[in-house]
Amino acid sequence: MKSKRTESRLDEKPNGRLKRKDYERELAELHVELVKLQQWIVHKGAKICIVFEGRDGAGKGGVIKAITERVSPRVFRVVALPAPTEREKSQMYAQRYIPHLPSAGEIVIFDRSWYNRAGVERVMGFCTEEQTKKFLSMIPGVEKAMIESDVALIKYWLEVSEAEQTSRLEQRIDDGRKVWKLSPMDLKSYSRWYDYSRARDEMFKATDTAWAPWYVVRSDDKRRARLNVISHLLRQIPYEEVPRDKVKLPKRQEPHGYTELDYPYKFIPERPWPAAQNGGKAR
Predict the structure, then answer these.
(1) Taking the domains of the chain in order of start, what are their residue ranges?
(2) What is the CA radius of gyration of the chain?
(3) How many alpha carbons lie under 13 Å from residue 153 in its C-beta half-sphere?
């Protein structure tokens, strides 16, 4: 039966920032459940599609990494499509996403999805208002067809506050690990907070359906948001632990005359870590 660990203890805690020790303990237990979910999905041939949307800096990438870091990338596939080609621009809007939908035994996670049309494309002027209106009227039917084809569709919107978004984007400016996350498009998008708010509101009104509802995640506390999403996700899928044989390592074969090759292997240098010299730069 499904473990009670899907019922996160975080629900009973105050809304203060979550400590790393508490976060790592909770995450480790939820990762065990995600592995059980993975085995059940493969066993049953289930098809799960998860959509993550939200403003820049809302924490989508961190949530997705937390979900996928202990499971197989052959079962949990992450899809983050680049800008459409000229050919793709001429297609039905949702067409380029359809080949990425899950087959039996897969979970597909969209890091941004067809909802680009209702968000960034609309706000930044990459499509017309008429195109947006057509998309909003059409996509509920597309999602209903997905569900009628036995695809479980789960949609998450990560909601970040103005102050927290500003703080996160400012951190990217001087952090060499995160500079790739701050594009000229992100800067333009940042200045249009209320345009995005209006676009989000219209998107919810048109696409928050009984068969494919939106679930909103408060994401100012990244750690709490990650745990809450995983806990909620596990509750949406009626998985059970798949029985498996007890694993025992077999006996290794005898060497039968094998000796290590006297070969000049090119081993990489082994440095004393941590290394503070040279400003921490690898050389």
Answers:
(1) 4-236
(2) 23
(3) 24
Find, among 98, 126, 118, 99, the residue nearest to 54 by Cα.
118
| pTM for the predicted model, two decimal places | 0.87
SS3 sequence of the chain:
CCCHHHCCHHHHCCCCCCCHHHHHHHHHHHHHHHHHHHHHHHHHCCEEEEEEEECCCCCHHHHHHHHHCCCCCCCEEEECCCCCCHHHHCCCHHHHCHHHCCCCCEEEEEECCHHHCCCHHHHCCCCCHHHHHHHHHHHHHHHHHHHHCCEEEEEEEEECCHHHHHHHHHHHHHCCCCHHHCCHHHHHHHCCHHHHHHHHHHHHHHHCCCCCCEEEEECCCHHHHHHHHHHHHHHHCCCCCCCCCCCCCCCCCCCCCCCCCCCCCCCCCCCCCCCCHHHHCCC
CATH architecture of 4-236: 3-Layer(aba) Sandwich (3.40)
- Per residue of the chain (283 residues), give pLDDT as tens: 444 455 545 444 445 778 999 999 999 999 999 999 999 999 999 999 999 999 999 999 999 999 999 999 999 999 999 999 999 999 999 999 999 999 999 999 999 999 999 999 999 999 999 999 999 999 999 999 999 999 999 999 999 999 999 999 998 888 888 888 888 888 888 899 999 999 999 999 999 999 999 999 999 999 999 999 999 999 999 999 999 889 999 999 999 999 999 999 999 999 998 865 555 555 5
